[in-house]
C-alpha cells in the first residue's frame, strides 16, 4: 500500500511555520471550557460548583506536571519541546499570564454567581461574622473536640527555621506580637487536610436550608487560643503548588518498584511552582514567603478568598437532586441481559455468538466488563486470565476476581503499570496484594508505560482452547466507569486472540512482535499505521474516490500526524477531529486546513474514548483503543487499537460522530484563529440538546428495541 501511495503523491509546498497551536495554551483553553460550564446558568447549581472544583483540580495538576516540567527544563538547560517557534521563557510567561487571568475569572464566578445562587437555593457558605452567638457556640464546641487537638502552629525565628510547606495544602500565615518585648513574630499553621473543608454550622436533618463555614475561616477565628499571652495582629491564607512531575531513570539493574518509591519520596519535596495568596496579605508576609520559596513575581497569584475551590467537591455530595443533573441510569447491553436482576449473564455464550461493543457509562460496566472477569474467575473451564491494569481502585471487584481466580488454581497474569501518574503509590500497594495471592505480576517493559486496556481469558471448550478478549479505551476502574465515556470490544475472534496472546508475550517475556492481524500496537506499528491510512485517504481524494477521516481523542499534539492531516485536507479529504483537551491542529484555515473541522464536547461525563475511522473508498476501517495523538502515546507507550468489523458497530460509531458534528447539538467549535465558540442555542433561540443526553436516549431505545 505504501509504495502505491508514494507513486501518486504530488510535490507539495512547505507548510507554514505557525501551523501549530501551543500545547500548554491549548490546555488552558480546554480548562476555560470547563469554566464556561460553571458559568452557564442552564447547568444545575451543584453541578456548576462541581465544574468549579474540576477546574481547580485540573489547574493544580497542570502546574504540578506541565508547568513544572517546562520550568525544570529551562533551569537545567535541557531541550524544551515546543512546536510554536518561540523561546521557552516567553511561552512560560504567556502560560502564567493566561492561567492567572483564568484563575481570577474562576474566583469571580464563584463569588458573584455560584455562591449567591447557592445561598438563594438554601446552601449557604458563610463567614464567622455572619453568625450569631448560638452558632458561634456550636462551632467552638466542634473546634475544641475535632480540630484543636490536631493543629500544629509552627513558629519561625532563629531557633525555628521556616518549615517545609507541603504542596496543595492550605496554610495560615499568622503575625503575633509579644506584649512584653513588642516584637512581632511569624507563625505558620497548616489547615488539616483530613478534616472536612466545609464545616456544617447547623445540626438539623434538613438539607433544604444548610450553612457551611470554610475550615480555614473557623480556625482563623480561634487563633487566640493557639497563642496564649500573645496578641494576634493578622492572618492570611496561602497555598503552594510544587513540582510533582516524576523522572524515573529505568535500567536493567535497578528494581523498578524501589526506583519508583525513591522518586515518590523526592516528589513530596519538589520545588515550588506557584504561590497562591489571599488578596489581603500584607507586604512583609509576602516578602517572607517569596524569599523562603525562592520564586519570582510571575509565580505569585493574588486571589480573593476562599483559595482552593477544589474543596467544593464536598458540597456536591449534598442530597439536593433538584440542584443536580437528572440521573442517567446505565442500561445493560442487550446481549448481556438476563431474565431477572438476580441472574448473572453468561458472557462467554454471548461473546461466542458475536462481537459485543459496549459504551460506558451509558451501558453498564458492572454487567459487562466486571461480569466478564467475575465469570472467568469462577468458571471451572477457564484455565488462564491475563489483564493489564493502569488505574483501578484497591477495593475493585476486578482485582478481587483476579485474586479469587489465582486462589482457585488458575493461571493469572496481571500487568500492573506502577508509573500511572498520581496512582503510583496505590498501584504498588495492590500489586503486592495480587502477588501475595499467587497472581503473576509484571510491570511491563523498561522505558515504556503499558497504557493499553486488555483482558484475555483462555477457556477449554470441547477439547480445544477458546480465546475471549476485551479491548477497551478506558481503565478497569468501576468507580470512574460511571463518569468516564469509553468503548470496549468483547470478542472471541481467533485472529484477535492470537494477536493478544502475542502482545502479552511481549509484555511479560522477551518476545519482539510486529505481526498483528486486527491490532495496531505502539510504539512499533501504530504511528506508521495511522500515517499510511491518512495518506491512503489523500490518494483516494486525489483520484476522486470517497475519502474521509474521523478522529476522536483526548489530546492531539503530534506534529507528524497533524502535518499529515493538513496534507490530506489540502488534497480534499474531509477531516473531523473530536478532541476533549489539548489540540494543536488549526481548523478551517484558508490554504491549510479548509477541510478540517474540530469539535469539543464537555459535560457530566468525561469524554475519554479514542476512535480512528477511515472511509477508504467505501471499505471503511474503524479502530478503537487506548492511544491519544501525542508523542508519548505513539513512541513511549504500549498502546493498542483494535479494528471493528461488525456493521452494527460501525453504524454506532457513525451515529456518535453525527451527534458531535451536528449544528443542532451543543458543542464547542474551533475557529480558524484557534479560539473556541460554544453553540448552546439554535438559530430560533431554542436550547440545543446535549450530546450525552442523546447518546443515553439512543442506548435506552436500543435496549427497548431488543426487548421487543
Per DSSP, the total helix count is: 18
The number of strands is 27
- Helical content class: 25-40%
How many separate domains make up the residues?
A: 3
CATH class of the largest domain: Alpha Beta
Over all CA atoms, what is the radius of gyration? 28 Å
- Low-pLDDT segments, ≥5 res: 248-254
Shape: globular
Terminal Cα span = 45 Å
State the CATH architecture of the largest domain: 2-Layer Sandwich
Q: Sketch the major β-sheet.
A: 10 strands, mixed
The CATH homologous superfamily of the largest domain is named: Polyphosphate kinase middle domain
Mean pLDDT: 89
Structural category: alpha/beta
Share of β-strand residues: 15-25%
CATH topology of the largest domain: polyphosphate kinase like
Query: Oligomeric status of the shown chains?
Result: single chain
Function: Catalyzes the reversible transfer of the terminal phosphate of ATP to form a long-chain polyphosphate (polyP).
EC number: 2.7.4.1
Enzyme class: transferase
InterPro entries: PLipase_D/transphosphatidylase, PP_kinase, PP_kinase_C_1, PP_kinase_middle, PP_kinase_middle_dom_sf, PPK_C_dom2, PPK_N_dom, PPK_N_dom_sf
Amino acid at each position: 500500500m505504501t509504495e502505491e501511495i508514494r507513486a501518486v503523491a504530488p510535490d507539495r509546498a512547505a507548510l507554514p511555520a505557525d501551523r501549530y497551536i501551543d500545547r500548554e495554551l491549548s490546555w488552558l483553553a480546554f480548562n476555560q471550557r470547563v469554566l464556561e460550564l460553571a458559568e452557564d446558568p442552564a447547568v444545575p447549581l451543584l453541578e456548576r460548583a462541581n465544574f468549579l472544583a474540576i477546574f481547580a483540580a485540573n489547574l493544580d495538576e497542570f502546574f504540578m506536571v506541565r508547568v513544572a516540567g517546562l520550568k525544570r527544563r529551562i533551569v537545567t538547560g535541557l531541550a524544551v519541546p515546543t512546536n510554536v517557534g518561540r523561546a521557552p521563557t516567553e511561552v512560560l510567561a504567556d502560560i502564567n499570564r493566561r492561567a492567572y487571568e483564568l484563575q481570577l475569572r474562576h474566583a469571580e464566578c464563584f463569588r458573584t454567581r455560584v455562591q449567591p445562587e447557592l445561598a438563594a437555593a438554601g446552601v449557604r457558605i458563610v463567614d464567622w461574622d455572619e453568625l450569631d452567638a448560638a452558632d458561634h457556640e456550636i462551632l467552638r464546641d466542634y473546634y475544641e473536640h475535632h480540630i484543636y487537638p490536631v493543629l500544629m502552629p509552627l513558629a519561625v525565628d532563629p531557633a525555628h527555621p521556616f518549615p517545609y510547606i507541603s504542596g496543595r495544602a492550605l496554610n495560615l500565615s499568622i503575625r503575633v506580637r509579644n506584649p512584653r518585648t513588642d516584637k512581632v513574630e511569624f507563625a505558620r499553621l497548616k489547615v488539616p487536610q483530613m478534616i472536612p473543608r466545609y464545616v456544617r454550622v447547623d445540626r438539623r436533618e434538613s438539607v433544604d436550608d444548610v450553612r457551611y463555614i470554610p475550615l480555614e475561616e473557623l480556625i482563623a477565628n480561634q487563633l487566640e487560643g493557639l497563642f496564649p499571652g500573645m496578641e494576634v495582629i493578622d492572618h492570611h491564607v496561602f497555598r503552594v503548588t510544587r513540582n510533582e512531575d516524576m523522572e524515573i531513570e529505568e535500567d536493567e539493574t535497578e528494581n523498578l518498584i524501589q526506583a519508583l518509591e525513591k522518586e515518590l519520596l523526592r516528589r513530596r519535596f519538589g520545588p515550588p511552582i506557584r504561590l497562591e495568596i489571599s488578596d489581603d496579605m500584607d507586604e512583609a508576609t509576602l516578602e517572607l514567603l517569596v524569599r523562603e520559596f525562592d520564586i519570582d513575581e510571575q509565580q505569585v497569584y493574588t486571589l480573593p478568598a476562599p483559595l482552593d475551590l477544589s474543596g467544593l467537591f464536598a458540597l456536591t455530595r449534598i442530597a439536593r437532586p433538584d440542584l443536580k443533573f437528572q440521573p442517567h441510569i446505565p442500561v445493560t447491553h442487550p446481549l448481556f441481559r438476563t431474565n431477572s436482576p438476580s441472574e448473572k449473564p453468561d458472557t462467554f455464550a454471548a461473546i461466542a455468538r458475536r462481537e459485543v461493543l459496549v459504551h460506558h457509562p451509558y451501558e453498564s460496566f458492572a454487567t459487562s466488563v466486571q461480569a466478564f472477569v467475575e465469570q472467568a474467575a469462577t468458571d471451572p473451564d477457564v484455565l488462564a486470565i491475563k489483564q493489564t491494569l493502569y488505574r483501578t481502585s484497591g477495593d475493585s471487584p476486578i482485582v478481587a476476581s483476579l485474586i479469587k481466580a489465582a486462589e482457585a488454581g488458575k493461571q493469572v497474569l496481571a500487568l500492573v503499570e506502577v508509573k500511572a501518574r498520581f496512582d503510583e503509590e496505590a498501584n504498588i500497594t495492590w500489586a503486592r496484594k495480587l502477588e501475595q495471592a499467587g497472581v503473576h505480576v509484571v510491570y511491563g517493559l523498561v522505558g515504556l508505560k503499558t497504557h493499553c486496556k486488555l483482558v484475555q481469558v483462555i477457556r477449554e471448550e470441547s477439547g480445544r482452547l477458546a480465546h475471549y478478549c476485551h479491548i477497551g479505551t478506558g481503565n478497569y476502574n468501576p468507580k470512574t466507569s460511571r463518569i468516564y465515556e469509553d468503548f470496549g470490544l468483547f470478542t472471541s475472534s481467533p485472529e484477535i486472540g492470537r494477536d493478544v496472546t502475542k502482545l502479552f508475550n511481549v509484555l511479560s517475556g522477551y518476545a519482539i512482535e510486529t505481526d498483528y492481524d486486527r491490532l495496531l500496537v505502539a510504539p512499533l506499528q501504530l504511528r506508521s499505521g495511522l500515517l499510511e491510512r491518512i495518506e491512503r485517504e489523500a490518494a483516494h481524494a486525489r483520484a476522486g474516490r470517497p475519502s474521509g477521516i474521523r478522529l476522536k481523542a483526548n489530546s492531539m499534539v503530534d506534529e507528524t500526524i497533524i502535518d499529515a492531516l493538513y496534507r490530506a485536507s489540502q488534497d480534499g479529504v474531509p477531516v473531523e477531529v473530536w478532541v476533549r483537551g489539548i489540540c494543536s491542529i488549526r481548523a478551517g484555515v484558508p490554504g491549510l486546513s479548509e477541510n478540517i473541522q474540530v469539535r469539543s464536547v464537555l459535560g457530566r461525563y468525561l469524554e475519554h474514548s479514542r476512535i480512528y475511522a477511515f472511509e477508504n473508498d467505501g471499505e471503511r476501517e474503524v479502530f478503537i483503543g487506548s492511544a491519544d495523538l501525542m508523542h508519548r502515546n505513539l513512541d513511549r507507550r504500549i498502546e493498542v487499537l483494535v479494528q471493528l468489523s461488525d456493521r452494527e458497530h460501525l453504524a454506532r460509531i457513525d451515529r456518535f460522530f453525527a451527534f458531535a458534528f451536528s449544528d443542532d447539538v451543543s458543542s464547542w467549535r474551533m475557529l480558524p484563529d484557534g479560539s473556541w465558540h460554544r453553540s448552546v442555542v439554535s438559530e430560533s433561540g431554542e436550547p440545543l440538546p446535549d450530546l450525552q443526553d442523546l447518546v443515553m436516549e439512543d442506548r435506552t431505545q436500543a435496549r427497548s428495541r431488543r426487548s421487543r
